[in-house]
Amino acid sequence: MSRRDQFDVVVIGAGHNGLVCAYYLAEAGFSVVVLERSDRIGGAAITEEFHPGFRNSVASYTVSLLQKTIIDDMQLACHGLRIVPRPLANFAPQIDAPGLKLHQEVAATVAAIGAHSRADAEHYPEFLAELAAITRLLKSTLLESPINLRGGWPEWWRAAKFLPRVQRLLGVRRLGAFRNVMTGSAGDWLDRWFDTALLKGALGFDAVVGHYASPYAASSGYLLLHHALGEVNGAQGAWGHALGGMGAITQAMAAAAETLAVEIRVDTPVRRICASAGNLEVHTGSGEVIRARAVAAAIHPWTLFTKLLDQRDLPAAFLERIRAWRSESASFRMNVALSELPDFSCLPGRRKAEHHGSGILISPSLNYLQQAYRDARTQGYSSAPVIELLIPSTLDASLAPPGAHVASLFCQHFPRVLPAGRSWSEQKQAAVDLIIRTVSDYAPNFSASILAVQALSPEDLEQRFGLVGGDIFHGQMTLDQLYWARPVPGYAQYRSPLPGLYLCASGAHPGGGVTGAPGHNAARVMIRDLDRSPGREP
């Protein structure tokens, strides 16, 4: 039987944003097909067995930013998704001094900080209040299209109506703090609040994770805020684990979409998109041509606009911006199978404890973060890397055999392009060894407990998941690549210069992380546009 070759919408990419977009379009009554180049759905949110009996999330690895609206609308819990919170928010170990536990409860965290600094403990609730006010405002923008400052009076009217929201959610008193954090650095902000190096290092980690920059770089303040925009089961700012790994999220999304007759085709790479007689044609690697009224691309903007389109269909200024798009997060990703839990010298014990279920941050100071960035710029990659270690098997027994564990390691800074002609095929094992030594400095049994390693260099992230430059966010999240300028000023509302072609991935507002927001927002725009045009596919 020949496959159907005409739909209302083709979605390119079966990552989480593509699946979210497909769901909302199908719910609105449009016929939708999703084309995925890989042999499985999920994009960078997948779970796989990397050693016999050991499974883990391969690339993306932890949950918070996935929007509750999307979870509820898609009824993901009914399709098997269950997210459990970490027992402890984060744990920052030290080598020769006590570590620091950051709890989910404010009072417990204040007490933990008080063991290091009474003044910092007193300031912490005030810091959280300022953080909460700023993130409330930012969070209110996640599930709506950015204001287009080139869109004439209707958009300027939207901007004017935004001002009362600023006053309601932020308050006049915090306008200065909002400006300073958004335009300044995370390091300067944290230095104004605290003295304890370990506390500032732990909080500053969120300003550099997936961001190739110093914590004192402009716009690093926004990255810290971005990672505070989520929630887990109603707990604001919390992080958690999807039982079964990150693949459980995309599997649930695919199941939800398929209940609405969305067709998902794997092993179907797209080679070209072109306009034809009022529709769009999508040409696949097998030679198929699929016709649609609209195409939603859940892929990197550079790939979409420079590889899949005839460049004559795009304005020169638009192309210039896309070609100059900065896409580099300098991230190295590892999964390891462990025979036992890490035994930290500052908090001894190999029995499962609350700190083993937290985000374990090797980020002992802002100076450490800054030096890691300087090393990468001058030497090729950090000689003392910044690492977040998670052990999800402490929360999810399905990931490892009894008594054993799996760990995720997310590491900075490891640029995509190495100096002096070196390649990642040559340097990958050296980077793995360095990361293992670094963790072993804090937990001396770590190296000997490793049974197997799965490692993804920036080159691997690019080749396997289409993350150009190895960038987990589909483009750096700096002020000139955010909101109304993501990816191009004038084209931040998910539409592109080619009529009927939309961007619904992390290269669009509100950016990266497993949020589902770009897919949700793009679908809303597409539904309005398609409802105004004739020719719905029966």
Structure description:
- This protein is α/β, with parallel strands linked by helices and 538 residues long.
- The protein has a domain of 218 residues: 3-Layer(bba) Sandwich (FAD/NAD(P)-binding domain).
- Helix content is 34%, strand content 18%.
- The protein contains 16 helices and 20 strands.
- The strands form five sheets. Strands 1, 2, 11, 12, 13, 14 and 20 form a seven-stranded mixed beta sheet that branches.
- A hairpin with a 4-residue loop joins β13 and β14.
- α3 packs antiparallel against α4.
- It is globular, with a radius of gyration of 23 Å.
- It starts with 5 loop residues before the first strand and ends in a 6-residue tail after the last helix.
- The model has no long low-confidence stretch (mean pLDDT 95).
List descriptors.
20 strands; 16 helices; 7-stranded mixed beta sheet; FAD/NAD(P)-binding domain; alpha/beta; 538 residues; globular; 34% helix
The CATH architecture category of the domain at 6-81 and 245-325 and 472-532 equals 3-Layer(bba) Sandwich
CATH superfamily descriptor of the domain at 6-81 and 245-325 and 472-532: FAD/NAD(P)-binding domain
Low-confidence stretches: none
What is the end-to-end distance?
A: 20 Å
CATH class of the domain at 6-81 and 245-325 and 472-532: Alpha Beta
Give Rg in angstroms.
Answer: 23 Å
* Structure annotation, total helices: 16
**Remind me, CATH topology of the domain at 6-81 and 245-325 and 472-532?**
FAD/NAD(P)-binding domain
**Structural class designation:** alpha/beta
In one word, what is the shape?
globular
What is the β-strand count? 20
Largest sheet: 7 strands, mixed
